[in-house]
Amino acid sequence: MSLLAITGATGFVGSAVLDAALAEGHQVRALARRDQSPREGVEWVRGDLGDTAALAALCQGADAVIHVAGLTNTPDPAEFETANVTGTANVLAAMGGAGVRRLVFVSSLAAREPKLSAYGASKARAEALVEASGLDWTTVRPPGVYGPRDIDYLDMFRTAKWGFVPLPPGGASSIIHADDLAALLVTLAASNAAPTRKKLYEPDDGREGGWSHKELAAAIGRAVGRGSVFAPHLPRFVLDLAAAGDRIARGDRAKLTPDRVGYMAHPNWVSRSDRKVPPGIWQPRITGEEGLKATAQWYAREGWL
Predict the structure, then answer these.
(1) What are residue 117's phi and psi, to 5 degrees?
(2) Number of other CB atoms surrounding residue 251 within 10 Å
(3) Contact 87, 69 (CB under 8 A)
């Protein structure tokens, strides 16, 4: 049993990590912006990535830190620097002050192409800070993460119910279920195996070559009970117009931002086989078809569709 410190533990991925850590018998200390209900095995620390005192309390006595928290979408690209770069620097400083050596850092495949988006650039800069930290780090670049409680893929499920899934220009991507990703992060945090140290991994659902956009749209269609869906590839200028429309319609809650369009239009977000997690350490358990169907069922039960 270890004491694992988790940032972002109330978010979509972070809450799955917290559940996985508890299921494996670990104690958890978790950072949260707001007061949380008591939970057995969890010590909540109120604060955020800009609160150095909270981060110091989070790290004190921990065996490892899983740094999940970060900003994935915002109408103001400058906010990525504060959350993802400065926030990561603050976590590293807190670990140094507390003498914690083991770090599992959650980055993004977007860091592979930092020129495409401010988000990807911020994650690439955060990765550089981690690599220069002198800590025993492992960086994980997840592909598209989906599962119950996810809102990023939700619109695709909703439109698929009506037989229509608009897609970016042609390409392919990998996906991973949040529970599989969480299991990987906890395994890495608790691992003393030398091969995981100072490594960068790109996990996925085990589907070789990822999913073409058309294949993923069809699978989501099947998950919501549609025999087939109309899934046209939209040119970049249409996505730009859609982002402007989403900002008008949803304001600061817009999901399709100009920055997000930047990396959506890239043709290859497939996890690389040379950055695969060694099978002896972790393997995905949830296939895409299985996970998408279960996610659709959860959305339906919760009234999200």
Answers:
(1) -155, 150
(2) 9
(3) yes
Q: Which amino acid is at 157?
A: F
pLDDT for residue 257: 77
- CA 135 to CA 271: how far, in whole Å? 25
Do β-strands 64-67 and 3-7 pair in parallel, antiparallel, or remain unpaired? parallel
Q: Rounded CA gap, 154 and 151, in Å?
A: 5
3-state secondary structure of 97: helix
Domain-wise residue ranges, the chain:
3-148+175-208+269-286
| Overall size of the chain counted in residues | 305
Residue 195 has what pLDDT? 65
CA distances from 192 to 93, 196, 258 (A): 22, 8, 41
138-168 in b/e form (b: 16+ CB < 10 A) is bbbbbbbbbbbbbeebbebbbbbbeeebbbb
- Taking the alpha carbons at both ends of the chain, their separation in whole angstroms is 39
Q: What is the pLDDT of residues 20-34, one digit of tens each?
A: 999 999 999 999 999
Residues of the chain with pLDDT under 50: none
Q: Which two tokens stand for residue 51?
A: 């609160």
Give the containing element (helix H, strand E) for 73.
none
Phi/psi of residue 263, nearest 5 degrees: -95, -20
Tokens read off for 165: 């899934």
Could you tell me the two tokens for 129? 């800070």
- DSSP string for 127-140: HHHHHTS-SEEEEE
Write down the pLDDT at residue 193: 63
Distance from C-alpha of 263 to C-alpha of 249, rounded to nearest angstrom: 22
* Domain range 3-148+175-208+269-286, its CATH number among 3.40.91.80, 3.40.1000.10, 3.40.50.720, 2.40.50.100: 3.40.50.720
